[in-house]
UniProtKB/TrEMBL annotation:
GO molecular function (one): lyase activity
Descriptive protein name: Tryptophanase
Cofactor: pyridoxal 5'-phosphate
InterPro entries: ArAA_b-elim_lyase/Thr_aldolase, Beta-eliminating_lyase, PyrdxlP-dep_Trfase, PyrdxlP-dep_Trfase_major, PyrdxlP-dep_Trfase_small
The organism's place on the tree of life at top rank: Archaea
Ranges that cross the membrane: none
Family label: Belongs to the beta-eliminating lyase family.
The keyword Phosphoprotein is assigned to this record: no
Keywords of this entry: Lyase, Pyridoxal phosphate
Native source species: Halobium salinum
Segments forming domain Aromatic amino acid beta-eliminating lyase/threonine aldolase: 42-422
The keyword Manganese belongs to this UniProt entry's keyword annotation: no
Cross-referenced Gene3D superfamilies: Aspartate Aminotransferase, domain 1, Type I PLP-dependent aspartate aminotransferase-like (Major domain)
Coiled-coil ranges from the UniProt annotation: none
């Protein structure tokens, strides 16, 4: 049941079919080139696109814009301590700024970093340090029909094999991304985090949790991990983070803000066995790097008002009505899409439904980008915008051909979900007519091509 009502509204409209056809052509069949005003239901990302609460807007007005030592920073620090259990926080302008501040001091050239699956910006920051980002997803994670409760888990056996290959001294950090965005938003169990902690202790590595969607993860833990069935969401949310030395956070996800992020770290006394990690030194080094790239460590690239809104948003994120509504809405979208005949990745994850475009458009071979073809048809049919995560975004990679439909938080209602499902059903109806696409212009960096490349239908 919806746990909020509208106080402020933003008009949206559905352009005519003729206009949508024209827009698609003018955008070079790339949804990133379409203006938001021409999109009816925008499921491009759940990052920074949600609605803030009245309390958050009130906090914006009270934000303290002092360069150093602002009251808003203290509010954020207290919220991070209460909600996430970390006593130290270094703010950043958004998640990737936090990644730069942390991985820039933690990772050196020639190192290897393990992750259940690196998100794009995480992978880029590790690679930017001259290090090797290695994914350790569990068996079945890349199978959209495999049924398991925690398909986001870190594969310990694979992690140990990599450590043996490259040498423990060359693995400074292990990252666990909860939920796992690069594996269809799948959750990670607390038991798995405990086991990764053991591995990190064995090799004296820093354990980092990418906590962008940590409350959605807690919801799945409560639902699926027996030990936690009677725990509150807030307690699980904190418990899962106790295994980490540090967390990277994008406020644009479960900070419920439109911008912002931070690195959270514990002080030494938190964990008796420090696993060889010098928490005091890490904090000092992250702070220094953050000054260079983000700003003074009490605002870190955010306006004081954004810091204030983030402090409130973090506390709202662990309230049960928010997260129940959130995860169940995503699940509802998944159910409706299935009913509409769209094959989807299952079970449905926390922030998005991932449509299996390879199965949806089986006539289109991988080289002709079935995922991007589906993105275009969803726009053409109903001005719905999603994002391709397959051959177009990751050329040459052996990956599933997925289209992600990410729901912004507290933004759309049931009518819009229905519209998305009807749109998918209409595309399914004429799937034989959908043609593949070919790239006609792309930027020099292949890793970034999906943001700006232009395409055309294959003859
Ligand atoms: N880590 C994860 C798991 C993410 O999903 C993102 C962003 C980041 C880090 C970086 O955070 O955008 O604030 O710099 N994901 C967005 C998405 C962009 O659409 O999935 P950021």
């Amino acid at each position: 049941m919806r746990s909020y009502k509208a106080k402020t509204v933003e008009p949206i409209s559905l352009p005519s079919r003729e206009k949508r056809n024209r827009i698609l052509e003018e955008a070079g069949y790339n949804a990133f080139n379409v203006d938001a005003a021409d999109v009816y239901v925008d499921l491009l990302t759940d990052s920074g696109t949600g609605a803030m609460s009245g309390e958050q807007w009130a906090a914006m007005m009270r934000g303290d814009e002092a360069y150093a030592g602002s009251r808003s920073f203290h509010e954020l620090r207290e919220a991070v301590a209460d909600v996430m259990g970390f006593s130290r926080v270094v703010p950043a302008h958004q998640g990737r700024g936090a990644e730069n501040a942390l991985y820039g001091v933690l990772v050196e050239e020639g190192d290897t970093v393990l992750n259940n699956a690196h998100f794009d910006t995480t992978r880029a920051h590790i690679a930017n340090q001259g290090a090797d980002p290695v994914d350790c997803p569990v068996e079945g994670a890349r199978d959209p029909t495999h049924d398991a409760p925690f398909k986001g888990n870190f594969d310990l056996a694979r992690g140990r094999t990599v450590v043996d290959d490259v040498g423990a001294e060359n693995v400074p950090a292990i990252v666990v991304t909860i939920t796992n965005n690069s594996t269809a938003g799948q959750p990670v169990s607390v038991e798995n985090l405990r086991q990764v902690r053991e591995l990190a202790d064995e090799i004296d590595a820093t354990l980092v949790v990418d906590a962008c969607r940590f409350v959605e993860n807690a919801y799945f833990v409560k639902e699926r991990e027996d030990e936690f069935a009677d725990w509150s969401i807030a307690d699980i949310a904190r418990e899962q983070l106790t295994y980490a030395d540090a967390a990277v956070m994008s406020g644009k996800k479960e900070g419920l803000t439109n911008i912002g992020g931070f690195v959270a770290m514990r002080s030494g006394e938190y964990r008796e066995d420090d696993g060889g990690v010098d928490h005091d030194a890490l904090f000092e080094r992250v702070k220094q790097r953050a000054i260079l790239y983000e700003g003074f460590p009490t605002y870190g690239g955010m306006a004081g008002r954004d810091v204030a809104a983030l402090a409130v948003g973090l506390r709202e994120a662990v309230e049960p009505p928010y997260v129940e509504d959130r995860v169940e809405q995503v699940r509802e979208l998944g159910d409706r899409l299935k009913e509409a005949g769209a094959p989807i990745y299952e079970p449905v994850g926390g922030h998005a439904v991932y449509v299996d475009a390879g199965a949806f458009l089986p006539e289109i071979p991988r080289e002709q980008l079935p995922g991007q073809a589906l993105v275009c048809e969803l726009y053409r049919e109903g001005a719905v915008r999603g994002v391709e995560l397959g051959e177009f975004a990751f050329p040459g990679a052996d990956r599933m051909q997925l289209v992600r439909l990410a729901l912004p938080r507290r933004t759309y209602g049931r009518e819009q979900l229905e519209h998305v499902a009807e749109t998918a059903a209409a595309v399914a109806e004429r799937r034989e007519e959908v043609s593949g696409l070919e790239v006609v212009a792309e930027p020099p960096m292949k890793e970034l091509r999906h943001f700006s490349a232009e395409l055309r239908p294959v003859e």
